[in-house]
Amino acid sequence: MLYIVGLGLGDEKDITLRGLEAVKASTKVYVEAYTSLLSFGLTSDGLSKLEKLYGKPVIVADREMVEERADQILSEASESDVAFLVVGDPFGATTHTDLVVRAKQLGIDVKVIHNASVMNAIGVCGLQLYRYGETVSIPFFTETWRPDSFYEKIQRNRELGLHTLCLLDIRVKEPSLESLCRGKKCYEPPKYMTIHTAINQLLEVEALRKGSAYSEKSKCVGIARLGNEDQLIAAGSMTDLLDVDFGAPLHCLVIVGETHPVEEEMLEFYKVK
Amino acid sequence: MLYIVGLGLGDEKDITLRGLEAVKASTKVYVEAYTSLLSFGLTSDGLSKLEKLYGKPVIVADREMVEERADQILSEASESDVAFLVVGDPFGATTHTDLVVRAKQLGIDVKVIHNASVMNAIGVCGLQLYRYGETVSIPFFTETWRPDSFYEKIQRNRELGLHTLCLLDIRVKEPSLESLCRGKKCYEPPKYMTIHTAINQLLEVEALRKGSAYSEKSKCVGIARLGNEDQLIAAGSMTDLLDVDFGAPLHCLVIVGETHPVEEEMLEFYKVK
To answer: Which residues bind S-adenosyl-L-methionine per the record (chains A, B) (predicted)?
Structure first.
C-alpha cells in the first residue's frame, strides 16, 4: 500500500488522526521536499519535529530523488506499507500525480489522506471560495525571462468580477548556473517570492501591457504563512500592501473581484489603515 | 477563545491533531449540522463516534440554533474556550463567516483550524486544481423554480478550457410547506442531489438554452463520498455516468475542460468501460 498523506499547512500537528495512523503503520516514511517544509522542523537539526511525533525515521525526498528512486519507493510499497508525506493536500500540486499514476499502473493500492491546502485555506481571508476564477502562478522574473501569461487570466477573472489567487514562486534546490556549467551538482539557496516582489512584477506587466487588468489601486489581500500560528493577513490596495512588512515566507496574494457585503465585513478586519 | 475547527470529509478520524487539542481544551463543543454529518456517526444513536473520541458531549447546532443562540455561543467563548466544529474546512461554505465576523466584532479571539474540503480534495480525480474556473451550485429544480444561472458559468469555463466543479444541492432541516402553513416547526427529511439528477437537470437546461455549453457527450467525472473509505470516482460522458450506480450521498460532479496528458492518464483509471 502507498499512502499519500497531506500534512496540512502549519506544522507537525496539522496531520490528521487518519494520516498519523497511516504513518505509524508504514515501514518506510518519505516526505516530499519539492516545495516548502519551513515550518515542519526540517531545519539544520534535521527532521526532529516529525520524527519525534512519528517515532520513526523520515526520509526527505526532493524531486530528483523521487524521480531517480521512484522504482525503489514503488517496489517497497508493493511489499509493505509506505507513506509519502506531502505539505498541504496531496493534489494541491501537480508533482505527485505522476507517482500515483505509476503506482496504479503497477497495481499497487494507493490511499490518499487529504488535508488543508492553500487552495481551500485561503477562504480564511473572507472571500468566498466559489467566487474565485482560475488560479495563477507568478514566476520570478529574470533579466531575460519575464513570462506574463498570468496577465490575461487575471484580466478575465476581473472582467467577470471573480477573485484571483496568485501563487508565488518557490525555488527549492535549483541547480546553480555555475554548477550546470561545471557538470556537478550544486544548488542555489531556497528562494521564496514575497508579496512585494509579486506586486512589483504585476505592476511592471500592467505598465507594459496597458490592458487595465488592474492598477496600483486595485484591492488585494496579502497572506503570509497561511495556516501557521503567526499567519498575517492584510487587505488594501497594491500600494498599501507594499508598505506592509509581511515577514517570513510563504506568501500568497489575492486580487479581489466584486465583493458581497459579508466579504467586505471580513476584509474590514484585515484592512491596512 | 472561539475555535473554528474543520473536521475534514471522511469520519471522526479526519480531524487534525491540532483540532483535537482544541476540542479537548474546550468547555463547550458545538458541531454544525447545516450541511451533512452523514459519516460522522450522527445517526439515530446520537453523536457516539465524535463524543467517544473527544471524551465529552457535543452539541449539534443546526442553522436555526446558531442564529438563535449565537449570542449565547459567543458569550461562552468570551469567558472560556469554545469549539465550533464544521464538516470539511471552516471556510468551505459561507455559513460560518457570519459567526466569525460577530465574534471578531465582540473582540473574541478566533482561531481557525483548517482541514480538507471538497474545494481541494476534488484534486484526487486527477484534474489539476489550478485548471478549474468558477465553481457552480446546482439547486434542486421544483415545478415552479428552476434557476439556471450555473449555465453561463459553465459555458464560460468551457470556452476557456477550464474544468467546472458542480456542487450538488443538500437540503437538511427544510421546514415542510405544511408546517409553514400551520405555523409550527416540522421538517422535510434530508435530501441530497445525486449525480443522475444533476446531469438530467443540466441536460434539460442545455435543451432549453441551446448555447452548446455542453452536451450528453461532454466528458465528466462523478465523485461519490469524496474522502470516505468507500469513495467512488467514475469518468465518462454524461450519458455514461447516467448508467453508473454511485450509491449513497454525498455526490459531486466535474465537467471536464481541456486536459493535459497527465490529467488524461489519471482519468483513464476511472473511466467507465
So the answer is: 9, 89, 92, 117-118, 168, 226, 251
Radius of gyration of chain B measured on its C-alpha atoms:
20
The correct answer on CATH 3.40.720.10 for the domain covering A119-270 is no
Secondary-structure class of domain B2-116 per CATH: alpha beta
Best mutation site among A134, A157, A232, A262 for testing chain B: the one with the most B CBs within 10 Å? Answer: A134
Residue B64: which residues within 8 A CB-CB, separation 6 or more? Answer: B173
Q: Do B89 and A119 touch (CB under 8 A)?
A: no
Model confidence pLDDT, tens digit, residues A110-158: 999 999 999 999 999 999 999 999 999 999 999 999 999 999 999 999 9
ipTM for the predicted complex comes to: 0.92
Q: Structural domain boundaries of chain B? A: 2-116, 119-269
Please identify every stretch of chain B with a pLDDT value under 50, giving residue numbers as ranges: 43-44
CATH 3.40.50.1370 fits B119-269, yes or no: no
